[in-house]
UniProtKB/TrEMBL annotation:
It comes from Paenibacillus borealis. It comes from the Bacteria. The keyword Transmembrane helix applies. Belongs to the GerABKA family. It holds the Pfam family GerA. The keyword Transmembrane applies. The chain crosses the membrane at residues 309-331, 401-420, 432-460. This is Spore germination protein. Keywords: Membrane, Transmembrane, Transmembrane helix.
Length: 502
């Protein structure tokens, strides 16, 4: 006796042949839709599938992830209006949508969903999807839980004068902070996503008729071309879309300050907001942008100009001071005054290592202490970074491992790096410092000169979304010099830079 084969449901059979992100139209039967959803979200304990009688007599089903929805909004703004029984006859999907819009509050309005792939995408994004018996479409409702935190002062950028609040991990809040400062309909926002698993929301922000359309299109093209399972932070995007990922210099600016992001948009730049990250990316940028601070525009232009020159000077010290010391003490002692030479010789008399080894020991130790001060809890970290450097340095001098002179050189170098307001630029200079030290120890000042020339050639060849990195000096743009080497008065800075104009 042969057993009869159980009849297979065509909907379920097709479902098994498809990938987890199923591209299938929504069925008119609730059972088929429930089967599809439960198979896609198998072993997901936070998935909720609930049957109900909508408007008293209409079979329906709601699906959502319990950890992502706002419980109060679900109860008061969504479930309670649906359970009300007084309703006129509903004969079509359009009438059903109108009735839902009429019953629900303005903050809980339906969006029509036609495919199962879109349904899955909306569920994992925190929305609630409503299926209705005999309807070939579903309705999605934004009942997301607002995972917000208070607006705090930016932790990566010290605020001396200006707004004390910074961006947070919620992209909608960050966009609102920009909208609060730029109250114009010309501020455009375009939403994308990246990451096949994370599906991270990304928003491109720019001012129409000011930002170059070619730059906006190029940003969208590069973000759309990201092929990764997950994009968890804006740092992923910064590395994946920049022109020169192997260069130590930042060709995209990351900021946590809404005023800096708004000012950059006014200049014609583009901002990239990433959901889950408090850092907003600004592009295109130039080399000089790494030495500018938002406070430069909130103070007297004369003092701001002096501060900029101070940053340039000490950035040069941060890059080259250890190399100059190594080259002069190793190869060019005739350049040192006689009294200073005798003092250096007396200090180094008990030191067993050459100058390059001393400098490397102290530079690596300093970088380690600085990193430890960042990683440790804040009260302990400050103590480790300051007291640790003093104790280790003094003990090393007394033990005769290093000389007191190299302590002074490394200390000035460390202080110089702290004057650079852009962390990315400070990191780039710290990286370049070490190969310059090796060149100085090998070839003296000639090696240092060759290294600086190579850095200059590299900077001239960099591009940030088509903009030369050394603009407005190479190529020369006299209009931009007023906000580069100087901070000219506002009466003079009335034109945007040439590289950001349409």
């Amino acid at each position: 006796m042969k057993l009869k084969k159980k009849a297979t449901n065509p909907f379920s059979q097709k479902l098994k042949e498809l990938e987890p992100e199923i591209d299938l139209n929504i069925s008119e039967r609730l059972d088929d839709n429930e089967t599809a959803i439960t198979q896609v979200f198998a072993n997901c304990s936070d998935l909720v599938v609930r049957r109900l009688l909508m408007f008293g007599s209409m079979p329906a089903m709601v699906v959502y992830l319990d950890v992502l929805i706002d419980k109060q909004l679900w109860d008061d703004g969504f479930l309670e209006p649906l359970m009300q029984q007084e309703t006129p006859p509903i004969d079509s999907s359009s009438q059903l949508k109108e009735q839902l819009e009429f019953r629900l509050s303005s903050i809980v309005q339906p969006a029509v969903v036609l495919t199962m792939k879109e349904t899955v995408g909306r569920i994992v994004s925190g929305e609630t999807v409503l299926f209705v018996e005999s309807s070939p479409q579903a309705f999605a409702f934004a009942l997301k839980d607002k995972l917000n935190r208070p607006l705090d002062e930016p932790s990566t950028e010290a605020v001396i004068r200006g707004p004390r609040y910074g961006f947070i991990e919620k992209m909608d809040i960050n966009l609102a902070l920009i909208r609060h400062r730029l109250r114009t309909p010309r501020l455009k926002t375009e939403k994308l996503s990246a990451g096949s698993l994370s599906r991270t929301d990304i928003t491109i922000v720019y001012i129409e008729d000011i930002a170059k359309k070619s730059v906006v299109e190029e940003v969208k093209r590069r973000i759309a071309g990201i092929d990764m399972d997950s994009v968890l932070e804006s740092g992923y995007i910064e590395e994946l879309i920049c022109d020169h990922p192997y260069s130590p210099f930042p060709v995209i600016q990351a900021t946590q300050r809404p005023d800096m992001a708004s000012g950059s948009l006014i200049e014609g730049k583009v901002a990239v907001l990433t959901d889950g990250s408090p850092m907003v990316l600004i592009l295109p940028v130039t080399f000089w942008f790494g030495f500018q601070s938002a406070e430069d525009y909130y103070m007297k232009f004369m003092y701001a100009t002096m501060l900029r020159w101070l940053r340039y000077l000490f950035a040069f010290f941060a890059m080259t001071l250890p190399s100059i010391f190594i080259a002069v003490t190793t190869f060019h002692q005739e350049m040192i005054p006689t009294s200073l030479t005798l003092s250096l010789a007396a200090a180094r008399e008990v030191v067993p290592f050459p100058a390059i080894v001393e400098a490397l020991i102290m530079e690596i130790t300093f970088e380690a202490l600085r990193e430890a001060g960042i990683r440790l809890p804040r009260p302990v970290g400050q103590t480790i970074s300051i007291v640790g450097a003093l104790v280790i340095g003094q003990a090393a001098v007394q033990a005769g491992i290093i000389s007191a002179t190299i302590i002074i050189v490394v200390s000035i170098t460390g202080i110089s790096s702290f004057l650079i307001p852009n962390p990315g630029m400070s990191q780039a200079i710290s990286i370049i410092r070490f190969p310059l030290m090796l060149l100085a120890a090998t070839f003296g000042l000639y090696g240092l000169g060759i290294g600086l020339l190579a850095v200059l050639v590299h900077l001239v060849n960099l591009r940030s979304f088509g903009v030369p990195y050394m603009t407005p000096l190479a190529p020369v743009n006299f209009n931009g010099l007023g906000d580069t080497l100087l901070r000219a008065p506002w009466q003079i800075m009335r034109k945007r830079h040439k590289h950001t104009r349409r």
